[in-house]
């Protein structure tokens, strides 16, 4: 009986292990997802000041376009993760983050003068507000 129990246990372990086989080959969908995430991250993190030429401006504009509604709400409140991310993309120094938040809150009516304000228009106005507030950014 002891031999039979050991044999049965060994077969159960082998069956379990064969059902839990792992593969190191990436699937097509995981590779595509990784590529899209990597490309979006590279686009968003290579930023320069709004309105300037180069791919950095395109990254800031892409981020702003994608998160425009969330940014609008967070700018009105003067805080939020999307707003912090925008500050990072604009290279606002960490020590100026609270000031950056305050400027967006205080200039909200200029940043969004109408319901038809575009992300590009808001970025141009924001750039001017940051210059006027002496907040370093790129």
Q: What's the structural blueprint in terms of helices and strands?
A:
Layout (H helix, E strand, L loop, with lengths): L1 H18 L8 H18 L9 H12 L1 H10 L3 H9 L7 H10 L1 H4 L7 H14 L6
Helix pairs in contact: 2-3, 4-5, 4-6
Number of helices: 8
User: What is the count of β-strands?
Assistant: 0
Distance between the termini: 77 Å
Structural class: mainly alpha
The arrangement of helices and strands along the chain is: HHHHHHHH
Q: Please, what is the average pLDDT?
A: 77
What's the Cα radius of gyration?
A: 25 Å
What general form does the structure show?
A: globular
Low-confidence stretches: 29-55
Largest sheet: none
| Strand residues, percent | under 5%
The helical percent reads 55-70%
Short description:
With about 140 residues, this protein is mainly alpha-helical. It has eight helices and no strands.
Verbal overview:
This protein is mostly helical and 138 residues long. It has a domain at 44-138. 69% of the residues lie in helices and 0% in strands. The protein contains eight helices and no strands. It has helices at residues 2-19, 28-45, 55-66, 68-77, 81-89, 97-106, 108-111, 119-132. Helix 4 (68-77) packs across helix 5 (81-89). The termini are far apart. Mean pLDDT is 77; it is low at 29-55.
């Amino acid at each position: 009986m002891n031999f039979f129990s050991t044999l049965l246990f060994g077969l159960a372990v082998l069956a379990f292990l064969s059902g839990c086989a792992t593969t190191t080959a990436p699937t097509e969908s995981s590779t595509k997802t990784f590529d899209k995430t990597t490309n979006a991250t590279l686009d968003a993190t290579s930023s320069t000041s709004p309105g300037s030429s180069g791919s950095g401006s395109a990254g800031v504009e892409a981020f702003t376009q994608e998160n425009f509604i969330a940014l609008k709400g967070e700018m009105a409140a003067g805080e939020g993760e999307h707003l912090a991310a925008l500050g990072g993309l604009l290279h606002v120094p960490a020590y100026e983050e609270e000031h950056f938040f305050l400027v967006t809150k205080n200039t909200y009516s200029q940043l969004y003068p109408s319901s038809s304000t575009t992300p590009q228009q808001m970025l141009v106005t924001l750039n001017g507000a940051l210059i006027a507030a002496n907040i370093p950014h790129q």
